[in-house]
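Lecture 7 notes. Example A: sequence first, then its structure tokens.
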Amino acid sequence: MNKLNQGFVQIYTGNGKGKSTAAIGQAVRAAGFGLKTYIAQFMKEYPYNELISLKHLTQWIKIEQFGGDDFVYKKELPAREELDKAEQGLQNAKEKMLNGEYDIIILDEAIVAIYFKLIETNDLIEIIKAKPKNVELILTGRYCPEELIDLADLVTEMKEVKHYYQKGVTSRRGIES
């Protein structure tokens, strides 16, 4: 049973670090109030550490992964299998959004999945338009299309000012992954 009277559409985008972290932080904060969150992660089959830590909050937060990002590094278009996984992720998220069990739905990296041709902008527009009044919907990812920004109630752009990647530091377990 939903506890929110009014849910909004939030977007975390931009080229800076912290988009997924902000969305997951919102889920953790919401859990403290007893709100239930469903997180669909796109392009993240890697065992990111949030999967481990969120296991302690399964009463309030459910997280599922739909597809990887190997095709990006290989500079290829996504294979049919990856397209199917993304489609399944959208279907699952929409069902969870409409079934009344969850207060918050997070589509993590769904926006960048548009850029990499896994998802179409219209797929996310349909989900936004189908959102029940009492559900919060959070989308993350770089390269946000203007159409989604126009539909959102809150948009935060993470802007990279300085990053240690530029000094050759790679992804660190527990910080970036």
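Example B, a different protein, same format:
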Amino acid sequence: MKLRNARTLITGASRGLGRSIAQTFAERGSDVALVARGGDALEALAKELGGKAYPTDLTDPAAVEALIEPIDVLVNNAGLDCVRMFADTSAQEVRDLLQVNLAAPMELCRHVMPRMLSRGRGHIVNVSSMGALSVTPGVTLYGATKAGLSQFTSGLHQELRGTPVATTLVQIGAVKTDMADNIRGFGPTRRAIERYQRWHMLPREDLEPPTVANAIADAVEHERRYVTLPRRVVATAMMTEFPRRLTELTVIGLDMTKYDR
């Protein structure tokens, strides 16, 4: 999948990592469709990149459904965090994180996949997190939604085997964004991160958004299945991924096209 002249829809595109992804894809010649809650930042970025802005509240399922149009690359990047002990979490926060971090990406995939398959090309990128691999106090809800997204992407990959539609699962540590600052603002989570760093399980410096964005763009152009950053979490990712890969190997060769009972 070459990004030049490819139409790419990017959620959470107005700031942080999403903004860097939009800039990187546009630099490589992609026609970018930018999705975020709206505001001047989204419109200004779309104008800067020669793309199109789609102000959308992803917490609204109806708004997600109205978003769909033919695209070549879908980048499900938008995400919400909720940094507190789960017992202190509100019902609305649970609903919002499940909707934005998991249900919205699933719904977008459900709509675009048939069109990609009929056109004979497509690539789906789901941006998950290190929180899908290991969870610490304070990010239980966030980690659960991202673990669901990682598992969902693994299932998609199996269902799309042998088709012209590819998937990339992005599992990353902290990126220099407002979300990373917010997570560190909660004492129990910050202390867990600091211990990871003292034990050299995580680097002391967060990832730069352009570094991650370029890795994602490379993955699409070279049909790489994973983007895992920083490198220190690769071993953990491989251990977590092992049961999924074992399942894939088990079902290889089975006829998945017959829906008989």
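Note on Example B: The longest helix spans residues 91-119. The mean pLDDT is 92.
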